[in-house]
Amino acid sequence: MAAPLLSRDELLNRLGETFRRCGYEGTSMSRIATATGLGKASLYHHFPGGKEQMAAAVLQNTTDWFEQNVFRQLEGVHPPRQRLVVMLDTLGKHYDGGAKACLPGLLALSEERELFGDAIRDFYLRWVLCLTQVCADSGLARDIAQRRAHDGVERIQGALVLARAVDDTGVFATMAAELPDQLLAGGDRANIWTTRNPRFPVAPLAPASFAMRATAR
């Protein structure tokens, strides 16, 4: 496709698919050129910082997508169980049942963690915050809600990795069917609409390792 016909959104989508499929190191400029249909001169025109700037832009695009399609939905006022089911359905479609990798998770496991560490950490802490709110809305005590939220993100990420590893999207589907009950067990308002404030009045407690890191800065 000629450069003038390629929108920025489409460019970022194609870059994202390439990074998710090949990883940061495996994503060469020639692969990017093939995926986008743009020559290297055009790519550097859009991203003077080269591959690192491209990956940063794709990571931000992923974060923006989650903010719109996942995090805001979790912060809504529908019943907690409904919010979880919608989240898992949205993620299942976005990641093709686990056939596609989660880019922040992929970058977090490689040396690129040092390049994009702040963005990756903020992405996951935001996810944990939203899930904590959902669990608290179900009637769980805040400390339990936060532990469940961490468990939830871990299970989702683990299912994405395992589904790709064994080439079986049923892994993600099974996790998605079980997770709402596991996260909301003991909550007596899991199916009740709530009129709570959309956010916690104060920031949730971060895991000790994150809190210590933030203090060190």
Descriptive notes:
This protein is an all-alpha fold. The chain has a single domain (59-216), classed as Tetracycline Repressor, domain 2. The chain is built from ten helices and no strands. It has helices at 8-26, 29-36, 40-46, 50-74, 80-94, 103-108, 113-137, 142-166, 170-184, 208-216. Helix 8 (142-166) runs antiparallel to helix 9 (170-184). The protein is elongated, with a radius of gyration of 19 Å. The model is unreliable at 200-205 and 207-217 (pLDDT under 50).
Q: Can you lay out the helices and strands and say which pair or pack?
A:
Elements: H1 8-26, H2 29-36, H3 40-46, H4 50-74, H5 80-94, H6 103-108, H7 113-137, H8 142-166, H9 170-184, H10 208-216
Helix pairs in contact: 1-2, 1-4, 4-5, 4-7, 5-7, 5-9, 7-8, 8-9
Instruction: Please name the CATH topology.
Output: Tetracycline Repressor, domain 2
- State mean pLDDT (0 to 100 scale): 87
- Let me know the largest β-sheet: none
Count the helices. How many? 10
One letter per element, helices H and strands E, the order comes to HHHHHHHHHH
The number of E-state strands comes to: 0
Overall helicity: over 70%
Task: Give me the oligomer status.
Answer: single chain
What is the straight-line distance between the termini? Answer: 45 Å
CATH class: Mainly Alpha
Morphology call: elongated
Structural class, please? mainly alpha
Name the poorly predicted regions.
200-205, 207-217
CATH architecture verdict: Orthogonal Bundle
Q: Please report which band the strand proportion falls in: under 5%, 5-15%, 15-25%, 25-35%, 35-45% or over 45%.
A: under 5%
Q: How many structural domains in the coordinates?
A: 1
